[in-house]
Amino acid sequence: MYAVPGDSVHPMTDKEIRSRLSALGWPAMLENFMQSAMFMINTALAGRLGAEALAGAGIANFTMFFVFGAVFGIGAGTLAMVSRAYGANNIEEAIEAGRQGTILAIALTVIVVVLFAVFARQILQLVGTEPEIVDIGAPYLIVGAAFLPFQTLIVLIGSIMRGHGDTRTPMVAAVLMAGLDLLIGVLLVFDIAGPRGLGLTGIAIAMSVARIFAAIFILWAARRSPLRAAVMGRYRVDTNMLKRLARVSGPAALEQMITIGGIMAFSIIGLRLGTTSFAAQNVIGPIISIAFMPSTGLGIAASAAVGQSLGAGNPLLAYRFGRQAAFGGFFLSSLVALLVILFPRALLAVFTTDIAVIDAGETPLRVTGFFIPAVGIGTTLPGALRGAGDTRAMLLISLVTLWVVRVPLAILLGLVAGFGLTGLWISAGINYIVLSIAAIIRFASGRWQHIRL
Hints:
Elements: H1 14-47, H2 51-87, H3 91-126, H4 131-146, H5 148-163, H6 168-189, H7 199-221, H8 229-232, H9 239-271, H10 275-311, H11 315-342, H12 344-351, H13 355-369, H14 373-387, H15 391-416, H16 420-445
Helix pairs in contact: 1-2, 1-6, 1-7, 1-10, 1-11, 2-3, 2-4, 2-5, 2-9, 2-10, 3-4, 3-5, 4-7, 5-7, 6-7, 9-15, 10-11, 10-13, 10-14, 11-13, 11-14, 12-13, 13-16, 14-16, 15-16
């Protein structure tokens, strides 16, 4: 167990704090890289099938993850509850928080699976997708959504493990999932395993099989966890714990849905620019996600460290963990920004061989690179705030930055002013800056240090 010393008695130096964040953060960074790599692998495979396939996979993925965003929110709330209880050495409460979070997430996922199985075509039509893209995207969406319960297990068990300081096991599960996705995807999408490839359906099957094996692995690994009873115990509903969990997870789930919904609206606006521009937009997204990888890992580390510090009654140490995570996130994101600014075409060419798509994406990607340093702060500090259980503040911040700043600016700059895809990504960059400023203000206020879960 990670015991947090009292700062007034045995103060941790900044070097020790950075070392602890690094120990928690590098597996989380690699995990996030693998999660993003899976998205990038599928994008690269779809890119080899043409612009329409790329667009179909893009809109289906955004639709799937919009609804599934609530599960990520439950995972964030579960992490906050588990880490706080674990830091207070209340193992029984940590176990119960993990168990009730899993019950809630699985129940929600079943509803999502039924929704997509019955209404996949109608949902894609509702977001304004062109008929030919609906025809391509609907089967992909149905197959991909059918296996979301396995993804839910990965998310929730991973949150429980991070809550007690184990970020390595979720990392290994992510590596396994991405590796299988690549191997099976190449075999099924092209003609290696048979006379004809399966196209987008092959990508969906590969993604689903990868999720199954990753879920089996993380379930097996949970047997060695000090909180294994949260996964392996009897699943009975605890109304009191569910209410407490809902107070933390509810805003986090809404935040995730608002965030993904805003990005989805951003994509729908991109659809109005034509198939080539939309395909370029779906290539730029995975590249930009590279900037989020290191800072998201540090944000996860900050969530666990902040929650454990507050559970141990040490708000000052929690503040120092959050501050050091923000410094690290800004530095690492700045390095990624240089790559994006200097080599946009080379990065685009990794995901598509379509010259028209590369041409359409080059300038928007380079322009976005200048905003990427803000991503480091806008990802790590929100992670620290969520670890403290300050999910309501993050819900409000996300609502404003996405739906008051990003989406209206995307319409104004991309469609009305005629800047096209470049205008859309300028609006995204401004979103990153506003989010960072809002997170700094909230973190500096210190109100999150006194939230009771």
